[in-house]
């Protein structure tokens, strides 16, 4: 099914990922309250959400942002990903539909201790609420526990054909556990168990080193020139 949407274009502002570049967004103006099917369609066109706002990069002279989605039913973990699974096998996974009061203190520590140089520093309860949650679709909260201690939360949108990884935050004391990668592996597992086709990972920018983890999950698809292109697993050992 094809939908029609009203779109607007933002003003230009400094790009958070490529210093010296200017960024602008194509923004969906229509209300998408409880419209998971429409959001699924928009995700397939390269859109993404921040809170209730659905947008896609629409820069004048740059096309570096490319949507990435993992083909979860064909996914095979690499050697390094298998090591991550083994290293963190003691962590207990809980798939929740309801956010917990424990989330914000964990989010606050994560932002303030690990991302003090980022756009979301300092963390605030208002920012946390407006950024992570939505009425557009249902959500899963993929929680990881070390015993009874909550150590990580992956906020995940549920769409008819896919899951979308919105944001992961974790206890800074567990930084060496590589919980960002491990949480993606667990989201892939959840998507597989739900019979979904894809896990969306957001935008990839090849010249932004901190984003390159997104392309290490094979096979995946990347959106460029308005078409999705399959990137198979490389033949060499990873």
From TrEMBL:
<dbReference type="Pfam" id="PF04376">
    <property type="entry name" value="ATE_N"/>
</dbReference>
<keyword id="KW-0963">Cytoplasm</keyword>
<feature type="domain" description="N-end aminoacyl transferase N-terminal">
    <location>
        <begin position="14"/>
        <end position="83"/>
    </location>
</feature>
<protein>
    <recommendedName>
        <fullName>Aspartate/glutamate leucyltransferase</fullName>
        <ecNumber>2.3.2.29</ecNumber>
    </recommendedName>
</protein>
<dbReference type="GO" id="GO:0005737">
    <property type="term" value="C:cytoplasm"/>
</dbReference>
<dbReference type="InterPro" id="IPR007471">
    <property type="entry name" value="N-end_Aminoacyl_Trfase_N"/>
</dbReference>
<keyword id="KW-0012">Acyltransferase</keyword>
<comment type="function">
    <text>Functions in the N-end rule pathway of protein degradation where it conjugates Leu from its aminoacyl-tRNA to the N-termini of proteins containing an N-terminal aspartate or glutamate.</text>
</comment>
<dbReference type="GO" id="GO:0004057">
    <property type="term" value="F:arginyl-tRNA--protein transferase activity"/>
</dbReference>
<dbReference type="Pfam" id="PF04377">
    <property type="entry name" value="ATE_C"/>
</dbReference>
<feature type="domain" description="N-end rule aminoacyl transferase C-terminal">
    <location>
        <begin position="103"/>
        <end position="223"/>
    </location>
</feature>
<keyword id="KW-0808">Transferase</keyword>
<dbReference type="InterPro" id="IPR007472">
    <property type="entry name" value="N-end_Aminoacyl_Trfase_C"/>
</dbReference>
<dbReference type="InterPro" id="IPR030700">
    <property type="entry name" value="N-end_Aminoacyl_Trfase"/>
</dbReference>
<dbReference type="GO" id="GO:0008914">
    <property type="term" value="F:leucyl-tRNA--protein transferase activity"/>
</dbReference>
<dbReference type="GO" id="GO:0071596">
    <property type="term" value="P:ubiquitin-dependent protein catabolic process via the N-end rule pathway"/>
</dbReference>
<comment type="similarity">
    <text>Belongs to the R-transferase family. Bpt subfamily.</text>
</comment>
<dbReference type="InterPro" id="IPR016181">
    <property type="entry name" value="Acyl_CoA_acyltransferase"/>
</dbReference>
<dbReference type="InterPro" id="IPR017138">
    <property type="entry name" value="Asp_Glu_LeuTrfase"/>
</dbReference>
